[in-house]
Amino acid sequence: MPPICPTPAKTGIPALIFAMLLLNLISCTPMITDVKNYPYTTVPGDSLHTRIYTLKNGLTVYMSPYHDEPRIYTSIAVRAGSKNDPAETTGLAHYLEHMLFKGTDSIGSLNYEKEHAELEKIIALYEEYRKSTDPAKRAAIYRDIDTLSNAAAQYTVPNEYDKLLNSIGAQGTNAYTWVEQTVYINDIPANKLNQWLTIEAERFRNPVMRLFHTELETVYEEKNMTMDSDSRKIWESLFAGLFKTHTYGTQTTIGKAEHLKNPSIKNVLEYYRTYYVPNNMALCIAGDFDPDETIKLIDNKFSLLEPKAIPVFTPPVEPPISKPIIEKVKGPEAEELVIGFRFNGVNSNDTDYITLIDKILFNQTAGIIDLNLNQQQKVLDAGSMLVMMKDYSAHILSAKPREGQSLDQVKTLLLEQLEQLKKGNFPDWLLVAAINDLKIEELKLYESNRGRVEAYVDAFIMGTEWNNYISQIERLEKITKEQLVAYAKIHYNDNYVAIYKQHGKEKSEAKIQKPPITPIKVNRDSSSTFAENLLAQHSEKTEPRFLDYASDIGFFDVNQNVRLHYLQNRENELYSLYYVFDMGKSRNRKIDLALDYLSYLGSSGYTPAEFSQELYKIGASFSAFTSDDFVYLQLSGLQKNFPAAIRLLEKLLTDARPDESALQKLKAGILKERADDKLSKKKILFEAMTNYGKYGASSPFTNVLSNSELNSITSGDLLSEIQNLMEHGHRVLYYGPATSGEILSELHAVRHYPETFKPYPAADPYPELEQQNNLVYIVDYDMTQAEVIILSRDDLYSPDMVPDISLFNEYYGGGMSSVVFQELREAKALAYSVFSVYRTPKLNNRHNYIFSYIGTQSDKLPEALEGIRHLMHELPKSPDLFASAKNGILQKISTERLTRTEVLFNYEEACRLGIDYDIRKNIYEHAATMTLEDIEKFHQKHFRDKKHVMLVLGKKENLDMNTLKKYGGVKQLSLEEIFGY
């Protein structure tokens, strides 16, 4: 039927009114009905071709057909988050999210009647437990809970939901909870849509609170992990200051420790029954499907869910902030200053104004903060961001101090940038450029199924009409500079909250102690009737498609030492161009510093600020990335401005003007960042300690200029390094709308290539240490948890091993249905995050490594390490789990399509590993014939009795040193030893 929109009558109608009606016709949202009477709405001009359905039970369905690969990205969104948590049981929404992975009376159940009888007893015991205050009585009740949980577990298949999703080839299976929402995510093969819908409809029909006490312990671990996070302290303090009465600030998503210690399964179930109803949910999908057929399937599967009245959340009215609120928090990481302003919710007029203000302040190229603070190096890492929520929103400014700079001074500098905005001290063109930047971001977002679905989730959760959601840029284009300045003058004054994140120790919530948990039985080789029936369903096979580099990529000689690797973008007007050099920090310790310096320079025609402004005017961005082995110079933006952009870049590369003041500030900033790195537990463990474990005291990580070398370097030295870089052979990677001929013409027009290119210098040798003895390295760090990495060096890389490695990792330790995850998290609740994989290197002629990680409470460390040790020695064998892993790999590869720049970088990766073909073809063909015995042989050969280096980051006084000594010679390392400075 035709759209239900205004149409002119056949009788006389004034031309002006007729024109106005036509305008209405263009802008309205038509309602369309498909052949089976499923009405849906669309928005004219919507590039995503969105269909929005509302089924009879109230379930909202967003669809965007997109056929670039035979996969579908999915999200099931519930309008219920931590703001809906009861004040006496915070963390409830997040905990329910965890429980939605535990199955139903069908998924994961071997005998629900018997299991249910035990679960009812557990529910009652938890009510007794939370009401009791006597420690002895609570301990006795918990022992009963533990006993009954093990009795109930014999009737379950732990992680069957994850196993099912893995079997059908799903990727990225996950979920998240925040203030407004809980969202469940999957990326599935298109030919498994029916099975996925069957699983998800069942999942939301009747979730069972099984394995509650082990999952609760996992949430405890997550809570303890957040207690080690300085960023969490900043966030919670900021929101507590901005929202004195709203649950945004009065409670947190993870919940209070006291509430987590006293859980109520009854309350969790009540929350589920209240909010997990179809009229409060949306199913959002984008990918390769037929909308008419798909909506029938969705209706058929989800019609079993019954609608209910949803409690109305009435947001408290926050009192005005009349003067600055200053809060101070302490933590072991570097100092930082964060300022937050409160605004009305996402559907208010505030949103458009603060969106533009945020971009004008900070766009990583030519914003007021970019030019005045970052480019002039007045602070470290200054930025601006928005947090958009339904009831209120926040605009957040942040920066870190330079050496000798106080947080008060940082605050003053940040607030001065707002004053510049309020005075209108920015060029008129910046408003237009900011809107173009937002358009480019939108184009990039909508290139992926994930980006499309995330937009749908945002619109649904926030209650934003889709036509309003996608028309924001049109509204922004109507805002004048005068209006923006007037708005800023009214809304940015002393009405802010400032968080001073100081370095130090602060008393926080007490760590949640380890309860006694008996490992549950893991019925790996059992399946529910539901699972057996679902996996027996036939689905049309999708044939894999592998890259043929010779035909999928265009290879052209720019000259004899420079090759163009070309791929055309036929979808939109965006391009990405890379200059790639096989010369990183291992061949030149100065190149990283030289490229950093370049970002603060201009040319003979432009000052540094003018250069950044010129780039931003034409919607272009330039960045440089240096690794140990490669340098990438990237230019991206709108193709129509590519000639101007590449000329700007080439002018900078060949004509950069020195700036001694900028260099001295850069040196001082690097020294401060080096000091800050020593305070970052992520930097300490995953970079400094990991490199020490592989190479010893001298490693690629420590291969940096010493402080004295840094201080003695000159502008001339660094500009010579840039010139020297461009005199080496390299590759040009291009993905964009232009033809190869056009790109070659532009490259020849802007570059003056030398007649001969310099050879690359020799790389500094950093041999990977052969482990003769087991070693344990400890770094003392003030934290609640202990984090451990175990490294074992194995054979040199060989492409022949890759198929075995891929399937082994899928089975053993790479995902939520793997052996390691089931044993250490599901059965024993020893960690929130744990994995163990066999890692291959990025370059040929380097070693493979066994890489195991676990983050756990210090008092669980003995059990956690014993669990990993046992799994490395004895591989649990499960035909069902192996079949799931095998099917998962085959499904994923058969439906994976590498597109856009993925094609170019896949070729790069292959060349670096010494192969000239798509390795996925070997994995697919070999995995199809592999058996569980092959997995066992791989484990025996590569895992058993391997020497290791164990890296332990934690508070030394809380670590069980006698336990650590069982795993090797123990040595405490200083930060100076692992950082090299």
UniProtKB/TrEMBL annotation:
GO terms for biological process: proteolysis. It comes from the Bacteria. It holds the Pfam family Peptidase_M16_C. Residues 71-117, 596-690 form the Peptidase M16 N-terminal domain. Keywords: Hydrolase, Metal-binding, Metalloprotease, Protease, Zinc. GO terms for molecular function: metal ion binding; metalloendopeptidase activity. This is Peptidase M16 domain protein. It comes from Chlorobium phaeobacteroides (strain DSM 266 / SMG 266 / 2430).
